[in-house]
Amino acid sequence: MSDFSGPLHEISFTAADDVLTELDEWLEGLLRTARLKDEIDDVRVFGSNSDSEGYTLRTCQFQIRNDNALDELLDEYFAGIDAQVALKFDGQVRVQSRNLQAEHPYEHAKTESLVCLNCKTRLRGQYCGNCGQRSRSRLISIWQLLREAFGDLFELDSRLWRTLVPLLIRPGQLTKDYLEGRRARYMPPFRSYLVLSVVFFVVAFFDPQNGLSLLFEPEPAAQQVAEPEEDAAAAAKAREEEMELARKKLEELALTGKVPVGIAAEIIDDDDEFEIRLGGDDSESGFFGDCAKARISDDEEVPEWVKKRFSDERLRQICERNNARGNKNFADAILDNIPIALIVLLPAMALVLKLLYPLSRRYFVEHLLFFVHFHAFFFFILILQILFARMMALAPVPDAVPMLVLVATSFYIPVYLYKAMRCVYGQGHIITIIKYLMLLIAYLSGATLTMLGAFLVAVLSV
Q1: Is 122 helix (H, G, I), strand (E, B) or coil?
Q2: What are the start-end ranges of the H helices in 357-399?
Q3: Do 321 and 297 share a structural domain?
Q4: Number of neighbouring beta carbons within 10 Å of residue 206
Q5: How far apart are CA 269 and CA 275, in angstroms?
Q6: Residue 265 shares a structural domain with residue 337
Q7: Cα(398)–Cα(401) distance, rounded to whole angstroms?
Q8: Which of 30, 50, 432, 453 lies at a C-alpha separation of 20 to 30 Å from 43?
Q9: pLDDT tens-place string over residues 369-393
Q10: What's the rounded Cα separation, in Å, for the pair 247 and 441?
């Protein structure tokens, strides 16, 4: 064969001896037709003797002009050869094929592979047709690394923006398109939900001043200015008048019986302030109060398994541990459980939709997809509201302007849900309004129960 740098396509035919003569005649015709093609520079056949099992190998090699010609031949000509062998010899001839590429020792190492490095599929372009990975095997520059990291964020035609825009202004359209098969143009539904939920909790509950306190200079402590003697005397007199007024209030409460028996009432005075405390020191009792009084009800309606698992001793331990970790840590524990509670809410609401639309012939996962998109929108609108409120706080605008915008966008959320139901399920206004009200009641009830569950998990997970 000629010394040519183009690819080599090799087809091996393994045949039994009884069909070998017929195969050789067929191969002669194959060689004549192959030489007539412009994409093939040369072709030849190698033979071998039969093995111990009575099978003989014939190898046919095609010298192809270039890679583009090989792609065209693989899709049409060589695929037709496989079909002809299967039709003519009815499974008596086995066919195997492979592509060979000439190697030149003086060339630089290739930056692109002939097969996908991820799934080993033969490449016919710069992207794999099976898994979508790019053929380039290494990163070329820092710029390319940044493009791959933030490409979807800054490219106006990326799937990110093609998802967020209809998610915000076209209720139900994403769900409808996904169910009808138009999916590649958008981000996957659960990925959109997870990304927007994470962004929401970061925007809503992360305070840079506290979380990154080392990057900020500490605020100077307020210096107390010495009060003149006249001002100090006036302040002391005013404090005495306030204390006297407080004592009279306590006496009136005691006379009317509004102060419960057994509750200590005292007035504490120091140099700067005074306060009235009812029921002891809050710092000692904590968020859950006096743990010595913690007990479960003796009501007969309380299940026995509840009484066994929540004995008085165990309740006191839970109470003491929650008081010990402080109110802020307890609130943080509740916030940590809210994302899980919302995920639990998704299938519950999908089940409600399944019951509301029994004749829609939709699977449960299709109803679940509806609420995944709705929750993604819900997180997105909350993110926009928070960012807008923070920007308006820095701008010299009246307080009524951002308040009106926030109220209007809040009313848009229930309107969005109604229009999404109309878009996806396609029923009339009256029947949709009835089902919308039922869904709204179920949603509020489910959200209340899941938030209560988040609270209980925070209480018991100590």
Answers
A1: strand
A2: 364-394
A3: no
A4: 10
A5: 7
A6: no
A7: 6
A8: 50
A9: 999 999 999 999 999 999 998 888 8
A10: 49
